[in-house]
Amino acid sequence: MPTSHSRRRSVRFASATAALLAAASLAVTACGSSDDPSTDASGDAPAVPTQDVVSGIRKVDAIASKLPADVRSAGKLTIGTIKTPGLASLPIGGEVDGEPVGLHRDLTDAVAKVLGLTADYQYGTFPSILPGIQNGRYQVGQANFSVTKDREKVVDFATFVTDGQGFLGAEKVTQDKFTHISDACGYRIGTAPGSSFQTLLEQNADACKKIGKPDWTVQYFTDSAPITLGLQNGKLDLYFGPSLALQYAESRIPHTRYLGEIYKSPVGFITGKGSPIAPAIVDAVNELITTGDYQKIFDKWKVPGNKIERSELNPATTF
């Protein structure tokens, strides 16, 4: 739940997002404009890996048998997730010709294969996924959820990657590297509502005052496109987001720089608290690690630093 402090911040939801997305759409369709975060500096669409690393994965009966009988009989797993249009959020996720691609999609499909199920993707916004797990709309949530203390109180986690919280800066940001959240003092930040990034900003709300610097200001968007557009048009200075995607974005979005990672945390699938689905997913991820299929997926997306050695159920948290 947002605090009264967070509500006082400059929060923009659907209407602002829609307006900025319309503006982003104009930039994206402007004949390979350099403002298009889905293109490289030459205006060409970057090559997206296409190799099939999932279809050959087989069901493991001993793991699938741990699922509830109704899930097994349905033959599918209802997964709440978010759309990631274009290529700006790769390698985590994106779309090519309307089809979802990315590291997380491959890993989710691979887990479903081990469980002998079809992944039934249902789309929402990031803030709606966790409540959707709690009210039973989704059986599993997958939207780059970092493991946090507050989240572990209401959902179970089955970890599958690591990711960090970092900053992408506009040209006006002259500091070469950020090592602490207080490095963001005095800047205009764009990030996602209901995210670990919002949690960290709220937990460190007095960081700037402690060191005698002006406070940051925050605008919240349910899609990354308005944030990257804001960096381009001067309305934002910083994008506080997942390190994995921001490092990729640096090479695709002109006049931006990846400023570094200030936290690192495990990322997991989420399920209802006490659901038997979470332990089955843990076993499925560990099966993929054992067989080498997990490694193949990471090799495809060229992000070796974000692997885990073993999946865990509700691991220790860092914040």
UniProtKB/TrEMBL annotation:
Residue span(s) of domain Solute-binding protein family 3/N-terminal: 76-305
The organism's place on the tree of life at top rank: Bacteria
Transmembrane domains' residue ranges: none
InterPro entries noted in UniProt: Solute-binding_3/MltF_N (IPR001638), TAT_signal (IPR006311)
Ion transport listed as a keyword: no
Protein keywords: Signal
Entry annotated with the keyword Signal: yes
Pfam family, one: SBP_bac_3
Stretch forming the signal peptide: 1-30
Listed PANTHER family: ARGININE-BINDING EXTRACELLULAR PROTEIN ARTP, MEMBRANE-BOUND LYTIC MUREIN TRANSGLYCOSYLASE F
Entry protein name: Putative amino acid ABC transporter substrate-binding protein
Organism of origin: Gordonia malaquae NBRC 108250
Phylogenetic classification of the source organism: Bacteria, Bacillati, Actinomycetota, Actinomycetes, Mycobacteriales
